[in-house]
Amino acid sequence: MKTYQKVYHILKNADNYISGEQLAEQLNLSRTSIWKATQQLEKHGLVIDSIPNRGYRLIEGDLLEPSWLSDQLPFTIHYREDSQSTQQDARQGLEAGDLGDSLYIAPSQTGAKGRFGRQFFAPQQGGIYMSLHLKPMVAFEQMPPYTILVAAATVQAIENLTTKKPLIKWVNDIYLDSKKIAGILTEAVTSVESGLITDIIIGIGLNVYIKTFPEELKDKAGSLFDEQPEISRNQLIAEIWKVYLNTPENQLIDLYRKKSLVLGQTVSFTQNKIAYTGLATEIDREGRLQVETPKGETIWLNSGEVSLSSWTSEQKD
């Protein structure tokens, strides 16, 4: 464990200021090393208050802890501080022979993207960015609805650890108080020879505690917390995957429907260059959305082909 990580562990568990002398004695280091460690923590986006004759206190932020996550989850944890995209990290791991059950995490991302190549804001501190690589080896028609399952698991994990009540916009976005706080991107690799889905990469970007968004996003994007959270990003990461692994598939699908922002609502979309408006009435196991138009048409929307342009919604309990 690096010095700044050791200092972080002490500060995060402290109720008050800890002097540089105390830290130095506890870690058998020089006062200069302690000061450098706090500077390193600040470079990671943490806010450290320093008062002469009192010492240091952690005000905001946390560190991702791969070793702790390894103890909590049955995955191989890959951590990269300078990640462009955890999806890309996972694809590179796959190409290098990764055997699956691997979770790629990063404190931020420099080139994060969501569905249809849309940019995803991923600052230095306050977000969860991770991608899980699995090797299902199943036929396409037998592939579990990963996006639905992980979206439901994310919402359930948030409710398990907090008092927040997020909802899901079909198919892969999670909303809180009418603002998007998370997106999920699932990519599949198919073998031409066998026709099987050999690899799945499920990416999650979740705004946990981000105070400032770019001008073009501030009215659309939000955070799970609007003040320093009482839980760490590590706890939420672990809970998401524990829920995913330990909850039966049918229960997660039912939860996805229950937490849907769009079921029972009027939605607008474009399919084959034709604009439609209709009532969203059902989500099937594969994640398709059924819409009934005013003309009596029944249209099934495939998540890979169309994106909702608008919907009317009310926050649910």
TrEMBL record:
Q: Write down the InterPro entries for this protein, in alphabetical order.
A: aa-tRNA-synth_II/BPL/LPL, Bifunct_BirA, Biotin_CoA_COase_ligase, BPL_C, BPL_LPL_catalytic, HTH_11, Transcriptional_repressor_C, WH-like_DNA-bd_sf
Pfam families recorded for this chain?
Answer: BPL_C, BPL_LplA_LipB, HTH_11
Query: Is S-adenosyl-L-methionine one of the keywords UniProt gives this record?
Result: no
Keyword line: ATP-binding, Biotin, DNA-binding, Ligase, Nucleotide-binding, Repressor, Transcription, Transcription regulation
Q: Which SUPFAM superfamilies match?
A: C-terminal domain of transcriptional repressors, Class II aaRS and biotin synthetases, Winged helix' DNA-binding domain
Q: Which residues bind DNA?
A: 20-39
Q: Which residues form the BPL/LPL catalytic domain?
A: 71-252
Q: Which reaction does it catalyse?
A: biotin + L-lysyl-[protein] + ATP = N(6)-biotinyl-L-lysyl-[protein] + AMP + diphosphate + H(+)
Name the EC number(s). Answer: 6.3.4.15
Using the record for this protein, list the coiled-coil segments as residue ranges, or answer none: none
Q: Which GO terms describe its molecular function?
A: biotin--[biotin carboxyl-carrier protein] ligase activity
Q: Which domain of life is it from?
A: Bacteria
Specify which residues bind biotin according to the UniProt entry for this protein: 109, 180
Q: Provide the function of this protein.
A: Acts both as a biotin--[acetyl-CoA-carboxylase] ligase and a repressor.
Q: Which family does it belong to?
A: Belongs to the biotin--protein ligase family.
Matches recorded under NCBIfam families: birA_ligase, PRK11886.1-1
Q: What name does the UniProt record give this protein?
A: Bifunctional ligase/repressor BirA
Query: Which species is the source of this protein?
Result: Streptococcus moroccensis
Name the gene behind this protein. Answer: birA
